[in-house]
């Protein structure tokens, strides 16, 4: 017989009838002098939880989709990002609404936008700051996030699975989530408020560093890159990035043109692929929202939108040569 069998599990005291049954009266008197420790410890709490289960008791399953949680733990990303994503899907981030459910008397309104209650989904997807950051990323073209947190997370995993493991943008969406939460904390506790593009740049830098130092160092990626012949593009994403940089430069030119009050402007370019995409001759989902912004600003500039939409010069026109190649022309 073990000592624990002589203890009444309901009152957590000595079971006197059992003591008198198995021990001598003198020994019973000595045992009863031993006071059982009733202080709570982790060990005693665990013992209580495992021994006092009542039939019919409903065990509530933790929040979050099991499939999404499995996808989170299988990510090739920093452990702290995995833990953060698990807390997201489990509803364990201390947002204002979550703190209110814990009995803390605070205003649940988002301090950044002052429009809606600060839920996890609001901070990461529907807050104006988050919406602007996702739009600037151009990695989920034309996608509108819903009020359902799990649907939005599943959309990110679907996007990730649509890309190969050699593409750096594959994990960028999760770095954006991390920076959105980090930016929120910096705003709340340090009063740091920056443009969404600045937070996006931090996410891109972190993702790029992780991709170069971890993903590209595995044997499969190394063999793939080393097998390319000289003169080929070593990184498949570079061509898309070149088009994206030129498209972003064109967008800035459109915006600066509008700011200066110029409305009848003629734009020309030497990238035929980008011209075809902008002129809707060719589609390109990689540019996403960036392409939408370009076409929006082109509509505000009459000549750019109506007169020159389909015009492209592989060779500069004669009247423009003197400006482009001065002082090499007479």
UniProtKB/TrEMBL annotation:
Occurrences of domain RNase H type-1 (ranges): 244-299
Pfam families attached to this UniProt entry: RVT_3 (PF13456), zf-RVT (PF13966)
Alphabetized UniProt keyword annotations: Membrane, Transmembrane, Transmembrane helix
Record flagged with keyword Cell division: no
Organism domain of life: Eukaryota
Positions of transmembrane segments: 300-326
GO molecular function: nucleic acid binding; RNA-DNA hybrid ribonuclease activity
Domain (Reverse transcriptase zinc-binding): residue spans on this chain: 65-134
Stated name of the protein: Reverse transcriptase zinc-binding domain-containing protein
Organism of this sequence: Brassica carinata (Ethiopian mustard)
